[in-house]
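Exercise 7.
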Amino acid sequence: MKRPRRAVILITAAMAAIGPAATTAAAVASVSRGRSTAQAVTAHIGVTATIRVGRVPGGVAVNPRTDTIYVANANSGTVSVISGRTNTVVGTIPVGRVPGGVAVNPRTNTIYVTNERRAGTVQVISGQTNTAVATIRVGRVPAGVAVNPRTDTIYVANANSGTVSVISGRTNTVTATIHLGGRFPVGVAANARTNTIYVTRAGKIVAHGRVSVISGRTNAVTATVRVGSAANGVATNPTTKRIYVTHAATKTVSVISGRTNMVVATVRVGYPAAFGVAANPRTNTIYVANGGDETVVISGRTNTVAARVRTGSCSVGVATDPRTNTSFVTNACSNTVSVLVSCRARADSRSMARCRRDDPQAGARPGSIAWPHSLSQPGRWSKAR
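Solution. The predicted structure, written as tokens, is:
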């Protein structure tokens, strides 16, 4: 397992199995904000399927409109296309050497994949045909990628260039290059509601971390937030205007207020680390891949760990589909994707059907949390007693 584990370290240090979470969140950002006084009901989070993909899967993204998942397989040079309806691989797309980050624009059904060793490029894939339709040259060692579907703009963190490439989804060309003035930008997330982009900078890996806040209107850095060591993954909840940043070295998640650009909480996720992160804006739930064999579930209301779910070996990337309350975790050492489903007492029939067939390959540590009866008001659930 030494070679895959070493590859995981390299990938997770400069990838965004992370930025796509913000894109998915933006797709459901218009969810109703109606208030509800209903009491919470018990929910169960468990792995319902394990899907075999290519070698060393890392970046993952979801298109909630088509119920399709895209997984970058670093050592295979491919992207696996998974049907969320059947939990099976329905296509494999060659994309070049060491694909890392993946992001989806659900409005245009277009997928963007960074190639870390292909002279700094981003491959553009049509979700309709599952073929690469364009290749865009960006900076050196592109890692994280995120999309603002409202403006049809793509943001790419170039780790070795210290820049962010801004790409027009309409023309597939770089329209701006933002210099961050810092080291090793890796993760990217976009809040479509505020047209704000968040970029993690790992800095000296163990010394410090920063998050650069960028205006999507001016392409200028408007703030810099100091966070923990080895900042890598980042996700946003557009409903609460909170940003979540993972730290591999300190095994924590920093919670940033998008209103003040200040850290308001630090959540300890524990051994061995914290890598990929995704936020479900409908339930105000955050999922963190811990680099080992677990995915940690955090309550966005209390900023505490609500559950731990055993997934595969070397869990590094995570994406969530708020429409189905399903999350997808990439397991780099076992070459699989774990499907996590939130089973609620009053779930829709499709979610309940998935929950009935617990995956025999999953571990025996599912998590139980409390969910609101209505998903129209995020943040009204707490850890089950």
